[in-house]
Structure formats: structure tokens, C-alpha cells
Amino acid sequence: xxxxxRRQQLIGVALExxxxxxxxEVSIDEIASAAGISRPLVYHYFPGKLSLYEAALKRASDDxxxxxxxxxxxxxxxxLLRVMRRFFDFVDEHGPGFSALMRGGPAVGSSTTNxxxxxxxxxxxxxxxxxxxxxxxxxxxxxxxxxxISLVESTALLWLDGRRVPRAELEVQLVHDFGALVAVSxxxxxxxxxxxRRVFKDxxxxxxxxxxxxxxxxxxxx
Amino acid sequence: xxxxxRRQQLIGVALExxxxxxxxEVSIDEIASAAGISRPLVYHYFPGKLSLYEAALKRASDDxxxxxxxxxxxxxxxxLLRVMRRFFDFVDEHGPGFSALMRGGPAVGSSTTNxxxxxxxxxxxxxxxxxxxxxxxxxxxxxxxxxxISLVESTALLWLDGRRVPRAELEVQLVHDFGALVAVSxxxxxxxxxxxRRVFKDxxxxxxxxxxxxxxxxxxxx
Lengths: 222, 222
What we know:
Two copies of one chain form a homodimer. In chain A, helix 1 (3-20) packs across helix 4 (49-67), helix 5 (76-93) crosses helix 9 and helix 8 (139-160) runs antiparallel to helix 9. The first copy, chain A, has a single domain, classed as Tetracycline Repressor, domain 2 (Orthogonal Bundle), CATH 1.10.357.10. Chain A is built from eleven helices and no strands. The mean pLDDT of chain A is 90. The first copy, chain A, starts with a helix and ends with a helix. The first copy, chain A, has helices at residues 3-20, 28-35, 39-45, 49-67, 76-93, 95-102, 111-132, 139-160, 167-188, 190-200, 209-221. Chain A is mainly α. Chain A binds chain B through residues 103-104, 108-109, 114, 139-140, 143, 146-147, 150-151, 154-155, 158-159, 162, 164-165, 169-170, 172-173, 176-177, 180-181, 183-189, 193, 197, 213-214, 216-217, 219-221, and chain B through 103-104, 108-109, 114, 139-140, 143, 146-147, 150-151, 154-155, 158-159, 162, 164-165, 169-170, 172-173, 176-177, 180-181, 183-189, 193, 197, 213-214, 216-217, 219-221. Chains A, B: Residues 27-46 bind DNA.
């Protein structure tokens, strides 16, 4: 194998191991053994476990960010629901590694790690703005979108801890949460209210998750 | 000063400094100077900066958890709003230290630090359950409450980054968010819906933040 090919293979093996168990528990010996090479050879390609971890995290981050891409077609709620499904696929595939990372994993405090996490959050934020068709959001809207992204992260972490609620239900719930949080902000702020009425004016009353939410809330309130 | 008195004084001085600037930037020399003692004397009471940081964080955590206590009287939304005000007071007083800690501060990965953060989250969770009058919550309700607590944290962090939205507005918004997130879950799950109808049946339609929210949402939708 060439140098780059070997590096990519090692990253793949490491990502697999770091995803399935807490990265703290994965040794370089184990990675070497899974890759079928010697421990010194691993160190030839990566100076230490942290650099291999960061490379694996970079691949996982790129993978996750790519799952946020969604055609600009159909009801907004349905688009968001498809993204939520792909997000939970990712969380499901990388459960223990995702938990360890987000709860303060082995490379916490590493500026590379923090920058990767932030880049994924930023990718999610940019995608949402693009789907809303908004380039320069007011501060209140930025806050709602970013805080919803963090709600998605924390909901996924809570789900991983025991999986006591079916993930399909949480995927729908998070889409509904987005609509509810935007509505709460829009109800408090006129500018945001007007903006959101414009964005959502073409949403179908039925046939999309946001329509379903409104129907259910009305029935709950009655 | 006696040993314990001196320790408490040092913790107070350190907390003040760790709150106003990122703890990474605060040196033992500076703490010694602010406390009016020598650097070696600081080390006599605390083996290093981490142990002093942890002691300061313990005091801040106890302070924050105590602010969650609220009499079981009046509309639930109003109780929650008073707690949100005290929470933002705390965030305001400890801004840079709070940000540094929650974004992965100097003592991240320290099990003491993580345990303190978790204990504050647990105190918030326990208080909310007590106010709802629920002892053994269904998994879906636990998830909503815990994810709302994390929404509060992330909203406070986003607020600290530029303070572009008045905090009073965010305090109300977070109370509304709580109502909205619970309603979204309750709309999806019959058991939770029935539970929430029982909890909220005595809430006033006006006069509380939840009533205001419903009024505003209805006006927004029309």
C-alpha cells in the first residue's frame, strides 16, 4: 500500500473502533491489530493516538456534514425530517464515540476537536438558513436556529443513554420542536413573525410534519 | 486567619477571577496577589490551580443550584420565569468562566468538574419534577425536561457571545420554549398528553407566561 492509502485505511479502522466503544478504551495496539500491521508502523503514519483520533473525527465530521445536504424541494418540514433520519443513522452508527466526544472525550480541549465540532454545527446552521432562503438572519433567528441545533445534539445524547424512546419518534419530535421554537420566538418578535409568515406561507397545512403538529396541538388544546 | 477561613477566602478570590476572565488566563500569582498572600502560601492550601478551580466551581455550583429553589405557589410559568431570571443573573455574574467551562474549559475531562456540572443539571431536573408534582416520569417526559435544560444552557452561552438579544426577552422565551416542547411531546404521546392536561389544568389562561404564549401563538397563526 502507498503512504496515503495506508493512512486512509488506518483512519477507517480507527473510526470503526472509536465509534463502537469509548475512544478512551481503544488502544493503539488494538488499532494496529485490526489493521493487520505492527504498532511501530501505526506510529510511522500517526505520531500518536490523538492525531489518529483527530483524523478519524475529521472523516466522521465530513460524513455527518454531508448528510445535511438535502434538495430544496417539497415542504420544509419533510426536508428537515429526512435530515433528522440521516442524523440519527449517524448517531446510531457512531453511538459510543459520539457520546464520549460530546460529553468530553479523550481529545477534549484539543483545538482541532473543538474546531471540527463547531464546523459541523456551522454546516447545519448554513443548511437551515439556505432552506429558509435567508442570507442575513436577525439575531433572534440565529439564536433560535443555533439553540435548536444544540437541542438536537442533546436529544441524541439522551437517546443514546438507554434508547428508551424509539428514534423515529424523536426524529419527528425534533422537526416539531424546530417549528415550535421558531413559533415561540416569532410570537415574541414582530420582525421575526413577519419573516416566518413569509417563509412558511407555502407550507402545506397537511402533508408535512409542521401541518401535522398544528393539527395535533389544536386537538390537544381542545 | 484559621486554615478553613483562609481556604474559603482563597476560594472566593479565585471564583471572582475565574468568573470574570477565562480561567485559562488566571494565574496562581494573580490569585495570590488578589488574596494578599504569597504564592507558596496558596500552594499550602491548594496543591495546584486545578484543585482551587474545582473548589471555586463547587461553590459556584452550590450557588446556582440554590437559585433553582422556588416556592410551590402561583402559576407554573411564573415560577419558571423567576428561576430563569435568577439563572441569567448567575450567568451574567460569571459570564467568561461559565462560557469557558461549558465550552470545554481548563478542567474539562476532570471527573470532579463533570460531576459538578451533572449535579447542577440534576438539581434543575429534580426541581422541575417537584413543581410538576411528578415522581416517576415516563421516559418521554424525562427526555423533554432534560433536553430543555440543555436548551437553557446553550441559549445562555449563545447570549453571552455578543449579548445581541436582551436577556429579559430570553428568560421569557425559555419559559415559552418549555411549554412548547412539552406540548410537542404531549401532542405525539397519549400518556404524556393526559399527564400534562392534569398538570396544567389549574394554570390560568391569562396572568402567566404560558397563557401569554397561547394568546400570542393564536394571534400569530391568524
